[in-house]
Amino acid sequence: MKILAVSDEESPALWDFYVPGRLKDYDLILSCGDLKADYLSFLVTMARCPLFYVHGNHDLSYRSAPPEGCDCIDGQIVVYNGLRILGLGGCLRYHPGEQQYTEEQMRRRIAKLRLALWRAGGVDIVVTHAPPRGLGDAEDPAHRGFAALRELLDRYHPLYLLHGHVHLRYGLNIPRVLEYNGAQVINVSERYVLEVPDRPFPEKDRGRLIWKTRPKERGD
């Protein structure tokens, strides 16, 4: 399965200078947040494949005008082409605002998914906005990662964790791909393409959305 992952900056090649057919080979699009709703709606229309997204800390307009034709997977586990995909948006709280969480709040969000993760037999791809702590994050308060996400990698061993939030243009030493405990941690800032084999999934559990928790939390 060919997946296009996007985050943080609208790609001129996929929007301003889009060429018809440029998105036709993708089987799925995943957004890690902080992108214009119109941009995501454009991508899903041109690609004609599903687009799943989580919230970035700047996606406050999604509440009144969410991306049309796209599916929010924030706080959910979905299965697509046999791949188990978990969405956890938002960033580490650095000032008052929505889509920001303390470490404890993020741990509670993950804890509420334990039963779903057990039923699914684990997870293949984790889609986040912020990175795990110490894996491609930064030291300034706005761009520190979550230790809770690193704990998730240690416990569930997904194949991939896709994130944004730390723009690659911020510095020359920001890694695009890191290996950690059997997972690839990928900063998909602007866009990144990966090809993942479909994972066979029991017929009784097929379907795009299999288990769901509340898609948005407000620090409860």
Description of the structure:
With 220 residues, the protein is α/β, with parallel strands linked by helices. It has one domain (2-199): 4-Layer Sandwich (Purple Acid Phosphatase, chain A, domain 2). It has helices spanning 37-47, 103-111, 114-120, 147-156, and strands at 2-7, 28-31, 51-53, 71-72, 76-80, 83-88, 91-92, 100-101, 125-128, 160-163, 177-180, 183-187, 190-195, 209-212. Helix 2 (103-111) packs parallel to helix 4 (147-156). It starts with a strand and ends in an 8-residue tail after the last strand.
Entry summary:
By secondary structure, the chain is of the alpha/beta class.
Topology:
Layout: E1 2-7, E2 28-31, H1 37-47, E3 51-53, E4 71-72, E5 76-80, E6 83-88, E7 91-92, E8 100-101, H2 103-111, H3 114-120, E9 125-128, H4 147-156, E10 160-163, E11 177-180, E12 183-187, E13 190-195, E14 209-212
Parallel strand pairs: 1-2, 2-3, 3-4, 6-9, 7-8, 9-10, 10-12
Antiparallel strand pairs: 1-13, 5-6, 5-14, 11-12
Helix pairs in contact: 2-4
Distance between the termini: 37 Å
The description of the largest β-sheet is: 7 strands, mixed
**Uncertain regions: pLDDT < 50 for 5+ in a row?**
203-220
Total domain units: 1
The proportion of residues in beta strands is 25-35%
Level-2 CATH architecture: 4-Layer Sandwich
Q: Can you count the beta strands? A: 14
Name the descriptors.
220 residues, alpha/beta, Purple Acid Phosphatase, chain A, domain 2, 7-stranded mixed β-sheet, 5-stranded mixed β-sheet, 4 helices, 26% strand, disordered C terminus
